[in-house]
């Protein structure tokens, strides 16, 4: 069958494998969840189809500890538990991913500066190794496998089930404050001034120039306490066809950015929005990846240490603006301290994520951005990556050797491979 991830690049031929079957005739395989990672990390000649593992196992209504199979979607958890007063402690910008994918990517969200990555709420999980053995991993038991699996991109085995904490909420509504910033300096000041809010994220106009470079809309928020837990499915629109390649260009992106920035008139705007609007705005648009055309797109997400974030981001934004290859989905986030996991993406600083349509002239630009990221001590997110070099990867992930040692010790490198792992020589 034809298979790709959310970026729709690359597309390959792959065979599905039941995760509970034997591995005797497999030379390389990787778990595949709901296909919402962006690049080639879930792609291999054989993929373990994980969505069938979608059962709940246990829930403690006092502590919020949920145990479920790894193929359960975050959206399913939200539908079931928000009306009962529980929400995910950590969630990325899409709820359409599996629990196993959340662990394998060690996803993060708008509250990393407060709660850290998804692994911060994971108590334990069961893992099927290359020899078929099933073991339990936690911070106390099989700790090295735990640290390698959280953020390990499926390269340490098949996550079968997991136990993790939800958080109590008193409302499905979020009290949101939007701060309009004229440039990157104001944007950074606003992030720091409002860092006591549990959630924060900024949209950046990546084509702004000169004194306006880095202008943004920063959205910060916290859950309301109005007792409104009644969830209604929001209306969803869908992109019915691939946009023509020429539709997404410098002029159309610049026009969108001007309109989006200009729609907010005041320096500070208060509003109340729902969970979907605040956390998952793009999930309301079905097949939104078709906007980038039939050749697909890639999301370039990097993070820089806090002491280098302002200087490095300004240099990168200047290069993107000069190139004319802007993105109307440019998201800036503040991050807290780095965790102990071997391949987790976040470190204390700022991250920027941008979507670019696939075209030949894109890759030289991204290579030049890699050089800046390396120079300032940053790294690129594996869940979004589809093209960085092995050298760039190694420069950004100093714990790689520990990860590879675990892979070899348990013979995981004999079976679990993806296009990404082979490209990066993991």
Q: Would you kindly provide a written description of the structure presented here, covering whatever features stand out?
A:
There is one protein chain. The chain is α+β, with helices and mostly antiparallel strands and 426 residues long. It has two domains: 32-169 and 399-423, Uridine Diphospho-n-acetylenolpyruvylglucosamine Reductase, domain 3 (2-Layer Sandwich); 173-389, 2-Layer Sandwich (Alpha-Beta Plaits). Helix content is 25%, strand content 26%. It has twelve helices and 21 strands.
Keywords:
426 residues, alpha+beta, Uridine Diphospho-n-acetylenolpyruvylglucosamine Reductase, domain 3, Alpha-Beta Plaits, 2 domains, six-stranded antiparallel beta sheet, globular
Number of self-contained structural domains: 2
Number of helices: 12
Give the C-level CATH assignment of the largest domain: Alpha Beta
Rg (C-alpha, Å): 21 Å
- Tell me the strand order in the biggest sheet: 16-12-14-13-19-20-18-21
Care to count the β-strands?
A: 21
- So what's the overall shape? globular
- N-end to C-end Cα span: 26 Å
- State the share of residues found in helices, binned by percent: 25-40%
Q: How does the helix and strand content classify structurally?
A: alpha+beta
